[in-house]
Each structure stands twice: as C-alpha cells, then as structure tokens.
Amino acid sequence: MHLTQHLRGSLANKAMGNSTPATLEQPSLVSFSEHQRIDIDTPADGEASGLGNSNPATSDFEALAVHRYKLGVSVGFGGIIMIFAALTSAMVVRSGLSDDWKSFGLPSVLWFSTIALLVSSFTVEKAKRALRNSNENGLRTWLAVTTVLGVAFLVSQWMGWLNLTERGLYLAANPSHSFFYVFTVGHGLHLLGGLLAVGYVTGRVWCGHHWVTRSAAIEAAALYWHFMDVLWLYLFVLLLVWR
Amino acid sequence: MATEVAEHLEVHRHPEPTNFWTKYIFSIDHKVIGIQYIILAIVAVFVGMALSLLVRLRLVWPDKPIEILGTLFPVGAPEGVMTPEFYLAMLTMHGTMMVFMVLTTAPQGGFGNYILPIQIGAADMAFPTLNMLSFWTTFVSFVTLCAAFFVQGGAPIAGWTAYPPLSALDEATIGGYGQDLWLLSIAFFCIGSLLGALNFIVTTLQLRAKGLTMMRLPLTVWTWFVTAILGLLAFGVLLSAGVLLLMDRLGGTSFFIPGGLLVNDIPIDHTGGSPILWQHLFWFFGHPEVYIAILPGMGVTSHILATFARKPVFGYKAMVYAVVAIGALGFVVWGHHMFVSGMSPYSGFVFSVLTMCIGVPSAIKTFNWIGTLWGGKIRFTTPMLYSIGFVSLFVTGGISGIFLGQPSVDLFFHDTYFVVAHFHLIMGVAAIFGMFAGVAFWFPKFFGRMMSEGMGKVHFWLTFLGVYAIFGPMHYLGVIAHPRRYAETTSVDYLGAAGANEIHYFVTMAAMITVTVQCLFLINVVWSLFKGKRVTSDNPWEATTLEWVTATPPAHDNFEGRIPTVNHGPYEFSVPGAPRDYVMQCNAPDAAPARKSGE
Predict the structure, then answer these.
(1) Are the beta carbons of A60 and B233 separated by less than 8 Å?
(2) What is the CA radius of gyration of chain B?
(3) Is A38 in contact with B9 (CB distance < 8 Å)?
(4) Interchain pair A90, B197: CB under 8 A
C-alpha cells in the first residue's frame, strides 16, 4: 500500500498541478505507478544460503507468487472436484439402475497405499514448515521422504490393479470393477501430476537451486499433495462402501 | 500488505521474444495467444459454415446428383448424391465445430485473453506458460476433430450431443474411428478449457490494478470471469462423461449401453448401462456451455452500447448481479433438455420453474441495454450496430426459449426445427454478433488501423437480415412438427402440404447468400490490416477503460513498465461538470467532480 500510494500520490499531485480542462486525456494526467523488473530465474537473494532477502522488492514478489500459485492450485481443485463428483454421481446412478452390480473385495494392499499417502501428507507438511523456518536440511529431507512415499503409493496402487486382474476382475467384467478402475486410475493420474511437481522441487532443492518462485512452488505442491490425500480418502471410503 | 505492494512491483516476467517461433507460434504473450484463438475460430467457423451448406443442400435436393460433391467425397456422396449417413456426419461436425471450436474459443480464449489483462491493468495473465499450453491443447483438439473426417468410417454421426447407444456402438453406425477421435478431441478440449478457466479466474482475482475494485470492473471482465467459473465447473463433468463413453466404445464397459439391446437384429453384448445417464452428464455440462458461449457477448454488448450511447451502463450493479445469477442458475436447469427422456413430471416441473427463473436476469439485462440506449447521444458505428443486433437476436432467441422451457409445450416442440431456430438465434448467431462487435471495436487497438465502416455496415445489414431469413422460417417448420436431424423430408406428405419444401428452399438460398456475405467480413479484416485508416490517437472511440490508455498496439508488457492506477468506474460518460463527455478509469481522482466514481 504505502509505496504505491506514495507513487500514485506524487503522480496525481503533479497531474492536478497541470490540470486544464482540454487536456484530460493527455498521458501526464493519467495516474501511473512505476514498477520494477524482476527476473524469476535469478536467485532470490544472490546468496547461496537462501536465508532472508535483502531486496524488499524480491521478497514482495515472492509473497505475491506464493499467493498466486496457491490460489491457482485452489481454483484447480474446483475443476478436479467436479470431475470426481460427476464420476461419483455416475456410479450412484449406475449401481442403482440395474441388477448386474456385483460387489468384490478391495485388494488389501490399498490399506498400505492409504497409510503411505497419509504419512506423505504429514511429511510434506513438515517440509513446508522447514521452508518457513528456513531449515534447509529439514526441507531437503522431508521433500525427499515425500517423493519416496508418493512413488510407494503409486507402486502400491499398481499392485492393487495386478491383484484384481489375477482374480479375473477386469475392467469390463462388471460395472463395479469398471468404476474401481476409473476412480483409482483417475486419482493416480492426478497424483502423478502432483508427484512430478514434488519431484521437480525436490530435485532442484537437492541441487541447491534458489529461484524466486521456490517458496511458491513448494507451498503450491504441498497444497496439491494434501488435496490428493483428501481425495484419496474420499474415494477409498466410497469404494469400501459402494463396491 | 506486502502482497499489495508486490502487485505493483509485478512485471512481465518473460522477456520480449526475439525469434519468430517464440514471438508468433509458441508465444506466452496473452495478446498473441488471443489472436491465435481468434484465428483458430475463424478457420473453424468457415469449415462449420461449409458443412452447414452441405446439410442445407441435402435437405432441398436429397436425390439430385451434384457432380463436384461426388469428386470431393467419393464415399460420402457417391455420384454426387449425399448418403443419409454423410448428412448426419456433416450435421454432427457442424455442431461440434461451431459449439466448441468457435463459440467457446473466440469469445473467451480470443477476446478474453487479449483484452482482460489490459483492462485490469496487468502485464499478462497470471500463468503465461499455462496460457500457451491451453491454446496448444485446444489446437490439438481441433486437429483431432478434423482428423475424424479422414479416417475409415468417416466423421461421427451421433450429433454434437453424442447420445449413446448410437455414439457407443459401431453396430449402429458405419463404424470406424470417427467417434473415437471425436471423444478424444473433446477430452483435449476440456483439458485446454479447464486450464484456461483457471488462468482467467486467478488473473481477475489477483492482478487487478490499484483502485480497480470488483465493482469498478468493466462488464466485459465480469462476463469473462463468470464464464471462466462456468468453464471450470462444467468441463470436468464433460471430461468424465467423455472418458466413460470412450471406455464403453473401446474397453467393453457398460456405463451407457443398456442390456438386451438389438441393433439390426444383432444382439449387443452389454448389460445394465443407462443412456439417460449420459444425457444427464452431458447436459450438466451442456447448459452452462450455452452461457459460456453467450456471456462474453453480453459483456461486449454492454461495453459497446455504453461507449457509443455516451452514457454509463444503466444499472451497472444489476448487470453484474444478473451475470452472476445467469451463471449460477445455468447449473440447475440441465433437465430442460431432457423433458422427453421419461423423467418424472415432478422433476420436469422443477427444471421448468428454474428455467423460467433465468428469464428474470435475462430480462434485467435486456431492460438495462435499452435503458443504456435511452436518451443517449448514439453514434451508429459498426461495432454499435453489431451490438444492437446482438440485443435483437438475444430477445428473439430468448422468447422462443420460454416456449421450450414448458414441459407440456416442449413435448411437441422437442427435436423439431423450432429448437434449431431457438438455439441458433440465441447461442449461435447472437454470440457471433458479439464477436463481430468485438472485432470491429478492438481492431484499432489490435492493429493500429480502423476497419472499413462502409464494408462493415453492408456486412452488418446483410448478415442481420440473412440470419433472420434463415432461422425465422424454422420456427414455422417447428410449429408444423417438422423433425430435425432427418436427412430427407421432401417426400413427407404432411410437411409438403404445409409448405415445408418451399421453406427449405428459401432457407437454403438465404443460407448460401449469408455465408457468401461472410467473405465480405474476411475481406474487410484483410483489407483493413493493410489499407485501413491509421488511428491518430490511442483512444479512437473515446472510450473509458484501460486498454485505450496504452499504446496502439500495446507493448509487450502492455503498459511499458508502468501500471495504471484506477480512480473511476468503468463507464463514466457524459459526467456533469467534466470537461469532456468521458472520464477514463485512470484519470486523476478529481476528473469527475460531480459524480461519485463507481463505488
């Protein structure tokens, strides 16, 4: 507020001083504020430590980027929620419509998936806390643990699908299986996107990179990761109840 | 309030590109991407119009050999006579091309992309790279859709609504990959639109210039914003439905294919699916999609009417609330597309009442447009004419919607030409007029030259009369119970007796003339690009919003390293006591002494 108000104030004062009716549209009478150039690929502070920012403009930009990335991810939730809401309503309708619905036991490995993902939500939160406390070692460790748990989740899901096919429960065998595959694969693809994001920031953090949108990227990836966790819990309960 | 300061330290975070590829092809500049969307839509609209002409030809001369068609389409039109399947394929592709590739891309992705960041005083969209990705995903979708023409079995024949089981079963059609490519194309399109919607929402919420409160936003920005919300919530549902249908086709599942089905005496090996389920999912997307197409046109119309009537928009706040109300109600009326699907009369009643409710904000908008014009010092420029044309078409198309929203009346009108007339006028042509208005209005800002007013006016009048000549008589065809989507009705007695054949002939002639006239628009664009009158000021229309304060065409970062500060509402025309009859949004705070500005 303060900086821009000051800038605007000074420009507006200048403008008022020259104010004559016929020249309203002249650029001198248009309120502008100057802004500074920031290159996002330069290090946040020019030092390797990454602790604290000497340049106030850069730190303001960082705060803005955090807000923007998190807002972007949150808005994205709206779209993803609608995708799975549509599939849920399709399943409710489809299972209620006809008598060909056959229940089946979920592969027990899904319990392992669930635990892995719950723990990963905890670890990504630890990583975020480490970031906010400028604890670089903690950040590196917890991000790496999260990535490993994410991979473990996907491997575990893969084993779940293998388990189903071994039991002869293929995609088209019964609508209950069809929906199981649709939900788990749909979630898996979204999670894979999250895993790529987490893996990307993990890799860059391990390489010691400090870029201006680093906080933003980590915070946004963590937010998305939590959402994937909540989405999975919802789907898991849904599949347990409605299989 | 660190973020607030940072907002004004925000910069164009990507440097100005230097080589051809990053400047014009894989550009992350919202202005280039906007133009790319518009070019895509122009290509698609001409393809779509050509397809509609084939449809019209087949309706009037079902058996007459047309030699050139035989040469062009040896499979679809052997010896120059179009097969019924070919007719349906052209119909399907016409609808898909127009609804997705034209009405959804240009108003939002095109004009929204170019103008929205400038109107809110931003240097670019919130996520420029994502913006590029949105366009190229849409482009892949377009290419995939076009590919459906060229695969074995040809383009799909299930209509743009792709109702199963026709869309799900090869046994019911010629077969082939057309429908698969169609579904793939729609899936890509959904992804591109979802990414674009996300970008628009974040940009509008976060990148507004200092002083630009939500209630000072130009109505164009409001409609793009609400459209983005609709897109975000609607396209995911279509994506889900499309994936399920694709799995029914390729994976052997039975989401939408019922059990015990016989097609051409062949028993179909599926159980228990529900075609009605597809209709619900499709129309849950499909109805908001109608507003995705028309809302930006409403915004452009409001904007242009105020500018050329030299008056503030009548009831600005009411206009904003009406847009939001239309968007919200758009999600709870999908059932009115399905009155004849066997739904419970109670559900039908609820959907009908909710549908009627949309009439209220729509009427508010129309009333306020007329209120804006009332007593104004009207300048009849080409963009103004297109906008007034939009209001006319919106009213005409809207009134027939009130008939169709009654379940009892819809039982008769459903799947007749009355419906064709209704949705073409309100969703198709009205939205297209919004785009014409947008092109004519912002052309000088895009390219620094004015479009030819003479050519523009001729084009407006011929098109305006032409579309009424095409779609007006279709209401009558609906009243005489002429079913739509039939490839051949010339030999049907009750239709012939009521004069349907003559009307079809007239409509086809009107369509051919109107399509030809559209070349005039294209000529006007190309001619004006090179020979149009150069603009002498950055604000040739004497408008108020921020795009008119920046250079023409705008610099790479829109405001050349500065960001405007907004002190006024968006439509401060004819302000008492002000030296000129308009006050721009970023003029000094005391520029409009007599009126409280915008808040």
Answers:
(1) no
(2) 24
(3) yes
(4) no
In the listed set B184, B202, B220, which residue is the last one of a domain according to the structure? B202
**Pair (A14, A104) in one structural domain:** no
* A90 shares contact with chain B (CB less than 8 Å): yes
CA B7 to chain A, closest CA, distance in angstroms equals: 7
Nearest to B100 by CA among B146, B132, B165: B146
* pLDDT beyond 50 at B87: yes
pLDDT for res A30: 58
The number of C-beta contacts closer than 8 angstroms across A and B is: 208
Q: In terms of domains, do A26 and A74 share one? A: no
Taking contacts as CB-CB distances below 8 angstroms, the residues of chain A near B240 are: 83-84, 86-87, 90
Residue B222: pLDDT band (50, 70, 90) is very high
**A36 and B549: CB-CB below 8 Å?**
no
Question: Average pLDDT, stretch B353-381?
Answer: 96
Q: Are residues B579 and A30, on separate chains, in Cβ contact within 8 Å?
A: no
Q: Of B184, B364, B358, which Cα lies nearest the Cα of B288?
A: B358
- Within 8 A of A37 by CB-CB distance, chain B residues are 11, 561
Alpha-carbon Rg for chain A in angstroms: 25
**Does residue A210 lie within any of the structural domains?**
yes
Contact B1 A1 (CB under 8 A): yes
Rounded to an integer, what distance in angstroms lies between the CA atom of residue B565 and that of residue B216? 12
Chain B: give the shortest CA distance to residue A43, in Å.
14
Q: Residue A6 sits in which domain range?
A: 1-35
Residue B323, pLDDT score = 97
- Residue among B205, B255, B586 minimizing CB distance to A30: B586
d(CA B208, CA B220): 14
Q: Are residues A107 and A10 in the same domain?
A: no
Which residue, among B148, B157, B154, has the nearest Cα to B78 in the 3D structure? B154
Comparing C-alpha atoms, which of B334, B335, B355 is closest to residue B345? B335
Integer angstrom CA distances of residue B510 from A230, B62, B472: 57, 18, 11
**pLDDT confidence of residue B400:** 95
CA B438 – CA B465 distance, rounded (Å): 20
| B257 within 8 A of B248, measured Cβ to Cβ | yes
Total of domains in chain A: 2
Q: Does any CB of chain B come closer than 8 Å to the CB of residue A178?
A: yes
Q: What is the mean pLDDT of residues A228-235?
A: 97
Q: Which two tokens stand for residue A85?
A: 């809401």
Q: What is the ipTM of this complex?
A: 0.93
Q: Could you give the CA distance from residue B548 to residue B536 in angstroms, rounded to a whole number?
A: 12
Q: Tell me the chain A residues in contact with residue B199 when contact means C-beta distances shorter than 8 Å.
A: 72
In a mutational test of the B interface, the residue from A1, A5, A32 whose CB has the highest number of chain B CBs within 10 Å is A32
**pLDDT value at B201 more than 90:** yes
- Cβ contact A67–B126 (<8 Å): no
Whether B2 sits inside 8 A of A59 (CB atoms) is yes
Between A198-207, B447-456, B475-484, B557-566, the lowest mean confidence (pLDDT) is in: B557-566
User: What digits encode the pLDDT tens for the residues A96-127?
Assistant: 887 889 989 999 999 999 999 999 999 999 99
Burial class, B316, CB count within 10 angstroms (exposed 0-12 / middle 13-18 / buried 19+): buried
A172 contacts B590? CB cut-off 8 A: no
Residue B381 lies in a domain: no
State the residue range of the domain holding B30.
Answer: 23-202
Question: Is B271 in Cβ contact with A98 (below 8 Å)?
Answer: yes
Residue A40, in any domain of the structure: no
